[in-house]
Amino acid sequence: MGILADIFGAGRARELNSFTPPAAVASPWAPASDLKRFVISEAVGAELARLPMDRSQAMTVPAVARGRHIIVSAISPLPLRALNADGVVPVQPTWLYRSDTAVSPAERIARTVDSLIFHGHALWAVQRGAKQPDQAHAPILDAAWVPHDQWSVEQDGRITVNGKPVNAEEVVYINGLTDGLLNTGARTLRGAVALEDSWVAKAKSPIPLTVIKRTEGQAPLEQDEIDYLLSEWTTARRSEDGALGYLPEGLEIQALGQLDPQFYIEGRNNIRVDIASHLGIPASLLDGSVATASLTYVTTEGNANRFVTETLPLYTQAITNALSQDSVVPRGQRIRFDLSELTTAPGTPTGAVVED
């Protein structure tokens, strides 16, 4: 397996009769380095606003989190099936429904869909068996999702993991049908984060923009006195009795106006519609009190149909296209998701059949 051998620790574990889960399972969504991002922000200051968004920032936007959860929770339980010209293959490849790693097949799909949503592509490491003379490729025994920050595609098309090139037989590259939310939706996400920060700040201090100034004839204050005054005033306004305050003689308060609360309501509703457009999901599925004219309300059944026919293929087709290659399954076979639970009403109580 080369440099990817540590992902499939179960092979060695069987020899030692002691399985040690891979360390990568601890936090698949964690950014590569919070310290690195802090140092960058300190160095470039305002220029940070032009740097690419990352997943952790995007997930602080409620509409993004809601959309991501809907898509991932709908796709990850769906079984994968191998088919040929006659239909479902009688003996299914075991890697479709089991794994020797600590990550289940359903979670593997969940992480893959997450990568497609945010980054527009994903990578699996694969473990292969012995190649037979009549086979073009050795059969796959197991597969594992590779965290996005651990791999990259070089300009010459080679894939590197942790900076080292890997053999094409060691990985399956899944190219998405979109460029990923962090790329195509970066401006929308920045606006959403700014709006979230703005209304949270407004909730902490629900008073108009205020200026404290000295009256005519009053001696100017030193800078440390000004800083202390503003700090004390801000703290007092956020207390339980913050509606009442006291100003020393020689100072006066001037209110410069207050932003219409409707701005936040309409802004957040519009963000939901925009995020839904980027994700390819019906905006009404993101809930919220959407009061904009751009959203047309439809029936629950209509939403479900649109979700299955318009949204899911953006992600399921990318996965099945990659898994249907001759390097993954024998020629003449293809991989598809079993959508019976989504297209059959009312469906079975225990879900689609999954081998174990």
Based on DSSP secondary structure assignment, what is the total number of beta strands?
11
Into which percentage range does the β-strand content fall?
Answer: 5-15%
CATH architecture level-2 label of the largest domain: 3-Layer(aba) Sandwich
Give the proportion of residues in helices: 25-40%
Number of helices: 12
* CATH class placement of the largest domain: Alpha Beta
Q: What summary fits the major beta sheet?
A: 3 strands, antiparallel
Q: Which fold name corresponds to the CATH topology of the largest domain?
A: Cytidine Deaminase, domain 2
Averaged pLDDT: 78
Evaluate the radius of gyration. 27 Å
Physical arrangement of strands within the biggest beta sheet: 2-1-11
Query: Termini, distance in Å?
Result: 25 Å
The gross shape turns out to be: elongated
- Structural class, from helix and strand content? alpha+beta
Can you walk me through this structure?
This protein has helices at 10-16, 34-44, 55-58, 62-75, 105-119, 181-184, 186-204, 223-237, 261-279, 300-311, 313-323, 340-343; strands at 80-84, 87-88, 121-128, 140-145, 151-153, 159-161, 164-165, 171-175, 210-214, 251-255, 334-337. With 356 residues, the chain is an alpha+beta fold. It folds into 2 domains: 2-185 and 310-343, Cytidine Deaminase, domain 2 (3-Layer(aba) Sandwich); 208-257, Arylsulfatase, C-terminal domain (2-Layer Sandwich), CATH 3.30.1120.70. A hairpin with a 5-residue loop joins β5 (151-153) and β6. α4 crosses α5 (105-119) and α5 crosses α11 (313-323). Mean pLDDT is 78; it is low at 10-26, 33-48 and 289-298.
